[in-house]
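pinging the channel bc i need a second pair of eyes. not urgent but kinda urgent?? the chain im working w is below, pasted from the shared doc
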Amino acid sequence: MAENKTTVRITWLYGDLMNLYGSAGNMSSLMRLLEAMGAVVELQELSVGGYSDFSGSDFIFLGSGTERRALMALEDIRRFKDQIARCLEAGGTLLATGTGSALFGRSIKGLDGGLREGLGFAAGSTEFYEKRRYGEYVMSCPLAGEPVVGCINTSSSVRWEEQPLFEVLHRTGDGPEGPEGALKGGLMLTQLQGPLLWRNPPLLEALARKLSGLPLPECRPLWLKEACSGYQRLLRQLTPPPEKAKNA
């Protein structure tokens, strides 16, 4: 008798447009781990002008892009608003990083001064500026049980009025301060950019377990061991010594 395997359905939105700072690394690491856990991954990719019914997805991902590309994705994604809503209502998870997260708020104000209506899945607004800010972060993350590390390199300001996804523990540079991101049901929004999951194996593993219901491999694959080593090095680098943190 054929073995029944767990299938995880993933939809990757605008991977060709919204792949700033290596956002694609989130998808490659998640799919590799799910397959190592024994799951069958069904991936569908969707971009501007394409169509697919992804309302039954277990996971939807949208990465970061320039302001121009983010606004292009915003205008196209409106036609999928009902599908996204059905996915979340059915218990699906959506992760949007960097400028991709802005699409799910109530409004976006561009450099041209124009105010555009967002998808409205979360209470919050975004405004783009000429000045760019950069910061590296260590943030607490209840979902992972361990800190999350990452960077925010942005010319936008996001004000969320939802439960924060992360709480800032340490910050370098002039990036945004205070609670970060938004968590509303299965909706996970953050300004952190790049291969967030690859850089944070604890978050990657927590998400893979949530999506599949399967245990982690008894022996971590070599690529995941290397990712864990990189995570620990970066965490040590970004975490100030106790005395320095106390006097900061």
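so Helices lie at 24-36, 67-77, 81-89, 196-199, 201-212, 222-238, 242-247. and The radius of gyration is 18 Å. — does that match what u expected or am i reading it wrong
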